[in-house]
Structure formats: structure tokens, C-alpha cells
Amino acid sequence: MNASNPGHPEGVGGGPLVDGPHDPEHDPRASYVLEPEYVASLTERVVATTGTTVQVTSPLDGAPLAHIPQSSADDVAEAYRRARIAQAAWARTPVAERAAKLLRLHDLLLDRMPELLDIITLENGKARKHAFDEVAHTALTARYYARTGAQHLATERRGGLFPVFTRIDVNHVPKGVVGIISPWNYPLTMAISDGIPALMAGNAVVAKPDAQTMLTALVAVKLLDEAGFPRDLWQVVAGPGRELGGPMIERSDYICFTGSTATGKLIAQQCAERLIGCSLELGGKNPLLVLRDADVEKAAEGAVRASFSNAGQLCVSAERIFVADQVYDRFVERFVARTEAMSLGASLDWEVDMGPLITAEQLETVTNHVDDAVGKGARALTGGSPRPDLAPYFFEPTILEGVTPEMACFGDETFGPVVSLYRFHDESDAVARANDGEYGLNAAIYSRDGERARAIARQVKCGTVNINEAFGATFGSVAAPMGGMRASGMGRRQGVEGIHRYTETQSVGTQRVLRLSPQFGLSAERHAKVQTLGLRLLNKLGRA
Ligand code: NAD
Question: Start and end of every Aldehyde dehydrogenase domain (predicted)?
Fold first, then answer.
């Protein structure tokens, strides 16, 4: 495996933020530094009066990057107070004006690409190319809702009780203030993209990004400000989720949560207590199926991206690969070869194919899963070890064979660069094994026969299924709903579903001419008879 050393190659970032080793006496590890003024210009957007800060370190070198001011429960209350005031005015802002700001955001995201890629990579450690995916996804989302929002939010006419005499208008009115709690793995798009349709629909947002990736979320908030959104419309609080989650849910009209299934269940309980809605985008143990008629080279290429994008810290990444007997050996040879050709590194360089894990905890989980599997008899066909020579929390891309149900990585989400291979003889057995377990987020199927693969997709219990692609065909198609079945979540982001979740559906019925009470001196009995005749007639006419 190639390895590019951590470092700061001249001009790699292209952004203005990174400035060589600093203070090497005190922190000899530090390879990257952010200008204090730059950090201050971002953190001033956090509603925080506690006077305490939490240090963010970079997984590229384990050195400090910035200090983030921390919010209290009172700060959360203040953020909601400001957001409510801003929302009342925003709900009256014409939809076309909201859309124009989103298009400005789209352009700003592309214009500020180097800065965004630097910050994402510095904070998260991911390969720069995977940071690019995030910026692209956020821009796609902004453009999609800018161009379709008016249509999704338009008042709809539906059939009324009495044709002609009852008019029904269905309005989509904003919920109010939406709380967004997001994880660290895709720190830009998870922090911002779910808020884009919320704003488009006339809501305000209070966001609590993950503590480890606050800077990325804050750069994005600066871009929202620059795009012309009223400043108070998007509030940011910082702190541990278990402390700020409760105060947020108490004051929110809706919660959009992305993170682990365990936390998602806690959030669902608290939302139920208040009878507010929530969308929960949770974990997965995603299967990838290589059918007997698959293009093996294409499947191997897809399997590398499916398993190792963002070092496997991706909710839709494949952790289980089921391969038909007929192509198993060829697939495994190509998959291992492609994995071993990956360029591993911890830098801002475009050439890196896979970066480090984000934290020591992530490294511990991944190491435990691999050690447990190998200790119980699984074989690592490639990888299998941490690589502290590359970065403090680096773990090699790892392909396991011989994984059995008593091993933790058989059914538990690893959320790292570890994938297990399983051979199958019979497709229906492969589908049953793919559906095994509690999750149902994403699946991939490789086959030369699209028709057959789409038929199999209907039997897979996952919210998204990609054919001849790892995950990008669905995730990148922002007009299509995305989310999990079973323990992988509730609700959907993207598409019309992704904006309607932030609205209340309101039906307005206008009754004209014909009254609903008996008319023309009819008794209640005669009135019921006339109505019964009417019901029979409408059925004969084929009305809904
Ligand atoms: P996590 O649940 O620990 O944390 C996610 C967010 O929730 C963070 O902002 C955290 O501060 C906050 N939080 C933690 N405890 C909380 C509580 N009690 N109340 C309110 N908020 C709380 O998840 P994580 O480990 O940071 O993220 C990884 C997980 O997220 C994986 O399981 C992954 O599959 C999942 N994920 C899912 C999607 C998706 O779209 N389905 C996308 C990305 C990540």
C-alpha cells in the first residue's frame, strides 16, 4: 500500500487557512494551524455565554486546531428565542426570494471550495476527494430545493365532499423552529443539507453539530449569512448532545437527527413525549450483492468505494459483501488488488484515497471488531492493523473472510474500513442474508441485467438500493427520498419528502351553495336517503 506522509505540501489546500507548523516547542506534532482571527470569525456564531471552551484536534496529526465556546441550557433557550422571532418574518418572505438565496448559497459553496475542503479534511481527517463529495452534495441540495421548492410548497387543490360545491385547498405551512442534531462523519452536508429544505419551507433552524466538527458547520453558517439569509434564522449551539439535546427538543417544533440508532431511540422517546415529529437518519450494516452475471471489475471498483470511502465512516457504506459462487474468486482477487493499490495518507492532498479515523474511540471500536473476528477464526485478506506511522488513529482498509455470527462485526455496525465477504450459491438465500439483522439503510447490487437487479431490489429491506453503484446513485440524486427502514431510521431526507417533513399539512375546505345540513324542509331521514342516493351515484361515476 502506498502511503503519503502527513504534512503540508505547498499550495495543496488552495485555501487561506493553513499555515505551517506552529509552536513546535509546545506541540511538535502540529502540522496544521488555523489563524486565530479566522477561528474567532467562525466561533462568534455560537450562542455561548458559559465562558468555557472545548478543544478540537485534527485527526491528521492529533494536534489542537481550535477552541470552541460551549453553550448552556440557557444559551439554547436564547437561540430558540431569537430563531422564533426571525422565523415569524421569514415565513412571510416570498418563496422566490428564499430560492434566490439558496442559489446564492450554491454558488458560494463552489466558490469557496478550497476553504471548505481544507476545514473538512483538517477536522475530520477524510481524504480530500471525499470532502469534495460533501460540498457537491450540499450544492446539489441547495439547487434542488431552490428550483423545486415553490412547486413542493404550492397550495394543492383536491377533490371535495361534494363535487363543485366543496372546494379543498391543501396548504403546506412551516412547522416553526426545527432543531438539527448532526454527526461528525459528513460534517458539512449532515450539518447543513437537512436545514436547506427547512429554510425553503419557511422555518428557522437551531443546529447542534457534533463537537468534533464544529468548525466545518460554522464555515457553512457563514456562507448562509453571506448568501443573504437573516442571521438569526440559523442559530448554532455547541456542547454535548446528552446535555443540549433535551433543552432543544423541549423547544423545537420538529427534530431532524442524524447519528447512531441508540441516540435516535432516545430522541424519538423525547419527541413522542412532546408529540412533535422527528426524522431519524441512523446506522446501517449495509449489504452489497455481486450477482453471478456482474461485471466483476466494476463490482470490485464499487466495493472499494462502498467499503472505504471516508474510511468506512459513512452511514451508507458496505460492511457485508455477498458474492455469487461463480464469480467469487475473481471478485476477491480484484477487490483485494484494488484495495492494496489505494493511497493511504493523512494530509490535505488530493492524491489520498483514504485518510485516518476521526478519534481514538473510533480506532478502538474498529480494532476491537477486527481483533475479535480474527481471534475467533476470521482471516484478514488484506489490512487488519492500525497504522500509527500514518496518523494517530489510522486503521488499514481491511477485508475479512470467514466471519461468523458470534463475531461482533457480523451484525454490529463497525463504522470503519472493515468489510466481510460471504459466498452464496442461491440468490434468494443471498437476499435473506442481506435482510438479516436489525438495520435497513442502503444496499448495492451488481449485475449486468438491470431488470433482474431492480426486481431483487424490491425484496431488499433497505431505504435505498443502488444498482451497479455503491451508494452515490441514490445519495447524489437529491430528488429521490433517502433514509432507513427498520432500525436505520424514520422519515426521509431529500426529494419532496425531505421538505414536506418540515411543514404541517393544512386542509382548508370552503363549502358553497349546498349546505351539509338538511335543506328544502327535508326531514333528517329524507336527507339521509338523498345523501345515500348521492353516494351510490358517485360510486357509479367512478369517483374517488
Ligand atoms: P451519535 O448518535 O453519538 O451522535 C450524533 C449527534 O447526536 C452528535 O451531534 C451528538 O452530540 C448528538 N447526541 C449524542 N447523544 C445525544 C443525546 N442523548 N441527545 C441528543 N443528542 C445527542 O452518533 P455518532 O457516533 O456521532 O455518528 C455515527 C452514527 O451516525 C453511525 O451509527 C452512523 O451510521 C450514523 N449516521 C447515519 C446517517 C444517515 O443518514 N442514516 C448519516 C451519518 C451518520
Answer: 49-508
CA dihedral 101, 111, 498, 87 (to 10 degrees): -30
Quick one: DSSP state of residue 394? -
Domain ranges of the chain: 72-153+172-282, 286-481, 503-540
Is the domain covering 72-153+172-282 a CATH 3.40.605.10 domain?
A: yes
In the chain, pLDDT over 90 holds for what percent of residues?
Answer: 92
Centre of ligand 1 to C-alpha 262, Å, is: 8
Backbone phi, psi, residue 74, to 5°: -65, -35
| Cβ 400 vs Cβ 370: under 8 Å | yes
Core vs surface per residue 193-220: b (16+ CB within 10 A) or e: bbbbbbbbbbbbbbbbbbbbbbbbbbbb
Query: How many beta carbons lie within 10 A of that of residue 510, not counting itself?
Result: 10
The 10s digit of each residue's pLDDT in 56-107 is 999 999 999 999 999 999 999 999 999 999 999 999 999 999 999 999 999 9
How does pLDDT run across 327-350, given as a tens digit for each residue? 999 999 999 999 999 999 999 999
Q: What is the pLDDT of residues 26-39, one digit of tens each?
A: 555 667 889 999 99
Q: What percent of the chain has pLDDT over 70?
A: 94
Strands 254-258 and 464-467: what pairing? unpaired
Helix (H) or strand (E) holding 234: strand 234-236
Q: Is 301 an annotated catalytic residue?
A: no
Mutate which of 133, 141, 185 for ligand 1? The one with the most ligand atoms within 8 Å of its CB, which is: 185
Closest ligand 1 atom to residue 262 Cα is 2
